[in-house]
Every structure is written in C-alpha cells, then in structure tokens.
Amino acid sequence: MGHHFCLIEGDGIGPEVVESAVKVLEAAKVNIKWERLIVGEAAIKKYGTPLPESMLALIRKHKIALKGPVTTPVGSGFSSVNVALRKEFNLYSNFRPVKSLPGVKTRFDNIDLYIVRENTEGLYSGIEHTVTAGVVESIKIVTKEASTRIAEFAFKTAVAQKRKKVTVIHKANIMKLSDGLFLECARKVAKKYPKIKIDDMIVDNASMQLVMNPWQFDVLLLENLYGDIVSDLAAGLVGGLGLVAGANLGKREAIFEPVHGSAPLIAGKNKANPSATITAAIMMLRHVGENKAANKIEKALFKVFKSGKGFTEDLGGRASTQTMTKNIIASL
Ligand code: NAI
C-alpha cells in the first residue's frame, strides 16, 4: 500500500537536501505520493502569509511531513514557521538521536545519546512585548501538563530503546519556579519507571560535561530552548549539523526534519550534506512501520560513511550534494 505524505522543501539548502532524500526514497522503492507544501518566504510571496491555512489543512489531512529547514528572519520580520507548526499540531515531543557514525571521524567515538526536547512552550515560544521604550519582556511559560507529557515521552523512549538513565537538564537553581516545575514533573514521572535511573544537571554544567565526558549521558530531557541549543552542541560531537535529524511528534501528526537550518551561505551551491534529511526520512519510515525500507536506506548511508569517500565539505570531503546522493543510491 502506498503512502501520501506532505513535503516541505523549505529555504536555503532545503530544496537541495529534500530533493536528495526524495530521490533516495524513490530508489529504495518506497511508494510515497508527495503533497508539496509552500511555507515561509515563498508562501509570503504567493499567499501573503508564511503559513497559509491551506498548507495546515494538508498536514492535518496526511498527518506526516518530511520538512527541510525554513528561514526565520533575525530580529524582525515574520515569526518562526517552525514554532508555529509545532504549536498548531501540538507536536510536543522533539526527539533527536545523536550517534557516532561509522567512518565519520570526530573528536569523540561511541557517542550514543537520545535528546528529548519539550517542543511547545518555555522561553523558545517567543512570547515577547515591549513594556516601554527600551524595555522588553520575553515570557517563559512552563506548565505541569506539558512538562509531565514530555517526561512521559522521555521515560517511555528510554524503555523502548533499552536505555538506562534519563538526565533532566535545567536551570532550577535560578528559575526555581519554571525549571523547578519541569524538574519536579520529571521526578514524579520517573517513579513509574523504577528500572530507569533519573538524575539532573544544571544546563551550563551539562554543556561543559557534554564536551568533556559525553559518555556519561544516555537520554537527555530538556525544556525547549535548552533542547534547541544542546542538540546543536551534541550534533557537533558526531560530525556536525549535516548529520543529525529530529522528529517532531504529536498525538496525530508528525514532522521529520534535519536539525540544521537553511545554511544561506552554501545555499544553491550543491554543497550541503544531505545525510541529516535522509536520516529524517529514515525516522519517518520507521514511524509508519516501513522498517525494512528504513533499514535498507540506513545501511546504504552507513556504507557511504564507512567508505570514507565521497564526503561533502562539512565532513572534510569535496563531493557535491548530488554526488553524495548518487553514492548512497548506488549503495542501496
Ligand atoms: P544553520 O544550521 O543553517 O547553519 C549553521 C552552520 O552549519 C553553517 O555553517 C552551515 O553552513 C552549516 N550547515 C548546516 N546544515 C548543513 C548541511 N546540511 N551541510 C553542510 N553544512 C551545513 O544555522 P543558522 O545559520 O543559525 O540558521 C540559518 C537559518 O536557518 C535561520 O533563518 C534559522 O532561523 C533557520 N533555522 C531553521 C531550522 C528549521 O527549519 N528547523 C533550524 C535551525 C535554523
């Protein structure tokens, strides 16, 4: 039976890496009909809004989307389409596996982390206003409901993935109420999972510990903004943003995307590493039960990594996006 999914190419390097993933899926003979969505700057030009209702309706209908990065203007302009999508579909779990890859040389070996990020609230929501000229308030909302459900997700994931420990990363020494509530909810949920250990660490120390001794961590549970920052840091441990993908999961809808952004400096130059988006597609396939196809594509991707050849520039090679894609397809 075929699938009918949404496809968001996104901005910058988005169209290049998304096209690469689509080609790999086609070559692996996964039967997917794509509904191509326009969001962000292109949607503003065409529809006058970055996230038209007609696009939201398509995601609601097909439930699953593969998404490239979408540019968010810095300091002014429209609000993040990424944040809006996560809120609209209540995609409360952001799940990012970060693992060392065969053949990809980095400063660290044997990294195997699961990052679970609360995806709907916290300071990352961008709820801000000017109080008076020169004074701005940015509001951090933390609720018992959202903190509990993301903790549930983290512990369930720990059980499903046969992990031993969940570390809650926070700043509850300073933000005693908000991060305090996040931590308290995680501790309550942990009581239901006696086989999984829980510990916690203040986010600044956790950032240092991650680059000094990343092997001490297993599953990391973070509120939205810390999750955003720490998952980029963790991507750096395994070879960079061109390699790591994430799933945004709600009760009904799910959006799979690379962790990286639109990388404007290399956009349109056929230089982007498509691996993160291909990995997002692999996660998407596993989500819908296409495990055989997912394993096949992952094996082909790892074969290219193991060969140590045909890497894009971010991995120290000289291959183009298209060449790397061709190599992966040839390895299928
Ligand atoms: P970025 O992730 O686009 O780039 C950071 C660095 O990583 C740059 O040096 C870039 O060249 C490199 N890089 C990223 N992806 C790569 C790939 N696949 N292959 C090779 N090198 C790669 O982060 P930046 O510059 O902070 O953000 C650019 C734009 O992307 C912003 O508008 C931001 O809002 C947006 N963004 C969107 C995301 C999303 O749609 N989920 C996530 C992160 C940022």
List keywords for this structure.
single chain, 2 domains, alpha/beta, 332 residues, Rossmann fold, 22% strand, Isopropylmalate Dehydrogenase, ten-stranded mixed beta sheet, 11 helices, 12 strands, binds 1,4-dihydronicotinamide adenine dinucleotide, two-stranded antiparallel ribbon, globular
Describe the 3D structure:
The two termini are 21 Å apart. The protein contains eleven helices and twelve strands. It is 40% helix and 22% strand. α5 (144-160) packs across α6, α7 packs parallel to α8 and α10 (291-307) crosses α11. The longest helix has 17 residues, at 144-160. The chain is of the alpha/beta class and 332 residues long. The structure holds 1,4-dihydronicotinamide adenine dinucleotide. Residues 13, 17, 69-72, 82, 241-242, 257, 260-263, 265-266, 272-273, 276, 314 line the site of 1,4-dihydronicotinamide adenine dinucleotide.
In short:
This protein has 332 residues and is α/β, with parallel strands linked by helices. The chain is built from 11 helices and 12 strands. The protein is 40% helix and 22% strand.
Write the layout of secondary structure elements.
Elements: E1 3-8, H1 14-27, E2 32-37, H2 41-47, H3 53-62, E3 64-67, H4 81-88, E4 93-99, E5 112-118, E6 122-132, E7 135-141, H5 144-160, E8 165-170, H6 178-190, E9 197-202, H7 203-212, E10 219-222, H8 224-237, E11 245-249, E12 254-258, H9 275-287, H10 291-307, H11 321-330
Helix pairs in contact: 1-9, 1-11, 5-6, 7-8, 9-10, 10-11
The structure holds 1,4-dihydronicotinamide adenine dinucleotide (NAI).
